[in-house]
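From: lab user (bench 3)
To: helpdesk
Subject: output format question, protein + iron/sulfur cluster

Hello, I'm new to running complex predictions and I'm not sure whether the block I got back is the full result or only part of it. Here's what I submitted:
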Amino acid sequence: MNSSDRRAVALSGVDLADAHELLVRSCEDCACPPSGGTAARALPALPAGPLVRARELVECRVDDEFVALFNPDGNGGVVIVNREGRALLDHFSAPAELAETATGAAAEAAVLRLFAQDILHPAGTAPSPRFEESTELTAWLHVTNKCNLKCPYCYVRKSDDAMTRDVARDSVDALVRSATKHGFRSLRLKYAGGEASLNAAVLLDLHHYAQERCDAAGLTLSAVLLSNGVAIGKDLAAALKDHSIRIMISLDGIGEAHDAQRPTLGGKASSALVLRTIGRLLETGLSPHISITITSRNVDAVAPVVRFALERDLTFSFNFFRDNECSAGFADLQYEEQAMLTGLDAAFAVIEENLPRWSVLGSVLDRGQLLAPRRRSCGVGDDYVVIDQRGGIAKCHMEIGDTVGDVRTTDPVLAIRDGSRGIRNLLVEDKQGCRDCTWRHWCSGGCAAATFRATGRFDVRSPNCTIYRTIYPKAVRLEGLRLLRHAAR
Ligand code: SF4
Ligand code: SF4
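Helpdesk reply: Thanks, we reran it on our side. This is the complete output you should expect:
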């Protein structure tokens, strides 16, 4: 920016023509948040009458010239402004008309962006978050309980038990019936396990059948394979591409950092196999999403994986280790708060150096995001169903042994919405410590399973609260940098 240029500049997601396609939600390994809008939206018309700045704004300094703005009581998205844009905002500390504060196309464009992201609002009408009704049913299909790795943080008690073709088809029938009955418009399937690729024939048959059934029922189908990336051969890669099945690969470090927490059954290194698979997928024309689980063992080694992903234009997301019964024997996995913050700072620095076109607002905040407000941190108890390899229905994959029905006899959505049984995914307002938090509509109090494991209660804030409160402003700043780097101006 030329210092002699006194025009106000404000940039938001609308200034990235293809922004709506680039937003990644951190939901690939977990329950998706209720489906809803994204930060990218069309610019509205400016209303008649005076505007005023929102009461509680988050302001993050980006550099000497620019500030990133976010309204935690609004509907998501960041606006980055230069000094003149920031000064323009000050004119609206008290209600004012645009014509009273500034003239010219640049000022009008800046005000429009500030208004569109709820930084400014009509006097007397403060913005309120729109909590969108969910229209997509997400199902975790546990196609096998078998795995070829022995990760210490895994919550699955493995066995050789695998889903049969009949159970897979019964599961699809139940899901399609239930989705239709409860008014969902789309079905999202997550092929998981164990290692789902070990039961590839059933998985592909299931997907083919699901496509037929969804087409007939008028539902949109999407699917993702959650894989450790050890054994996806060329044929399976080609089949996944043919069927438009997305792939998420777990990669927790490059080399030793990955191997320290993702060894093979025989205790050998697996990272070379995973990197070979990622290369194979890229050659096939598939871009896997990289899922990075952070424990104390790899907290110093997240930044190199982020660099690896960004250099290949791959999306990625962070998942903080969640303590569970199976991992209880590995006390060294639990991270220290300060170590996590230091590791994340290093990863954020790599993102800053290699800013992607897609937004990281949905992928670097563990179970939180800054794309669309919500009152629960995931879809458990609402629009998320887990089906085990025998057809048992559960509310959360971390509680897969705690079944609440069977696909042959039970309506899956009805079963997981029964609040009297199993995990309770409370509204953020019902969590002690969260009600007055700036980030409540974005964090929603964290993962219910992890909070219960740490505290024995569902109605309290996340044990990661301090980490979350520290990294949210940093994510706002990164989004500001992305807009500055990639938005048209
Ligand atoms: S867990 Fe902490 S950061 Fe999250 S909503 Fe609750 S108080 Fe806010
Ligand atoms: S309760 Fe936690 S582990 Fe279970 S789906 Fe929700 S966020 Fe994921």
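A quick orientation on your result: The radius of gyration is 23 Å. Let us know if anything else is unclear.
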